[in-house]
Amino acid sequence: MSRAISAVKGMNDLLPTDVARWRALESTIREVVRLHGYREIRVPVIEHTQLYVRSVGEGTDIVDKEMYSFVFHDEPMTVRPEGTAGVVRAYVEHGLHAKEPVSRLYYEGPMFRGERPARGRYGQFYQAGCEVFGDPGPLVDAEMIDMIVGLLRRLGITDVEVLLNSLGGKGTKARYRERLVEYLEPHKDALSEDSKRRLTTNPLRILDSKDPRDQKVIASAPSVLDVIGDDDRAHFDGLRRHLDKLGTPYTVEPRLVRGLDYYSRTLFEVRGRGGELGAQNTLVGGGRYDGLVEELGGPPTPAIGFAAGLERLLLATSVAPAKDQPEVFVAPLGERAMGEALALARELREAGVPTLVEGRGGSLKSMLRRANALGSTIAMVIGDGEVDRGVVQLKDLAAHAQRDVPRAEVVSAVTEAVRGGSTG
Ligand code: AMP
Question: Which domains does the chain have, with CATH numbers?
């Protein structure tokens, strides 16, 4: 045997047993966003690198260190590290703003970041996210956060904390930046190397740092809420009022900044407590990005969105997968029965019953053992005797009952049994 090739570190295979849980999760998410009027959009996985540089921003970990970028025919390209930039690009490129006053878009798919892999942190990971364009909030901000909390509840994830902040609009952000630099300058020597550099390039990012040296300094940093402008304050208060009215709990965290540059005003994060999450406990992150559509060449358009990490949701939830094993296992005994088995399986599948035919032959005992191992409900035994008599032997594997059914009635007997839960 030659040496096997393993997967790239941080990139995971999802085997069929995993995928069953994934699909259960995805269908719950789809159902919840559909109930809130979101429609799915699918955009490419590869975009021009410039898209992320202009949206996520230089000086962020994502753009500076984590992007899978390459040059193809002289064009710098990047495999998407997040979903919002591509959706905004598509929104502008297809002029969706001219077609509808408000767009509610949902996306799901793999994202790629070259981070150091850990539990809950991967190089390829999946996000499901929503974006609303054309609604300045704050009602829609509250509705979105409440939808996320409701979704998590449906997934059985109730031990969560919603962290809320406002970065304000351009004016507030600029004032805060100034105030933060004023505070940080005298502490410069105590900061990490990265943060020293960010002091001039992107000081807000310093608040995001996990470095213990930075954390010590950040702990007493001024709050954005000290310098927030009146309109931004009114927006934030409005959001809080709506959430209070809904009874959706949250904690105001004035130092929450998140790792992307495009946010303005509302910013939120949902963290899970306990479960198998460990250190990577941020389940959902999101916020408002009122300037991004314009920044990417569209008209001024308020917008808000969030992304949930599906691997982390799966670590936190105990959703049971839907059954995805064949309902009926056809066990042909002998050459003539084989042909009959294939035709029968085709009829059952056309009637919507998942069916598997054992094509390798073998003893009846071994075939029934396989049917049981697969979790099938019914085994159908066809031997030469059955072919001669124009019947099929139908075995209810759970009830250990069996009976002969005329060939012409097999499909209706099986569909009834599968729906009714017994072969009667
Ligand atoms: P972000 O796009 O950074 O705001 O992240 C949104 C969500 O995506 C996070 O809350 C995580 O649940 C998930 N996420 C982000 N980065 C990773 C990663 N490297 N591996 C797994 N999940 C991630």
Answer: 16-169+228-316 (3.30.930.10), 328-418 (3.40.50.800)
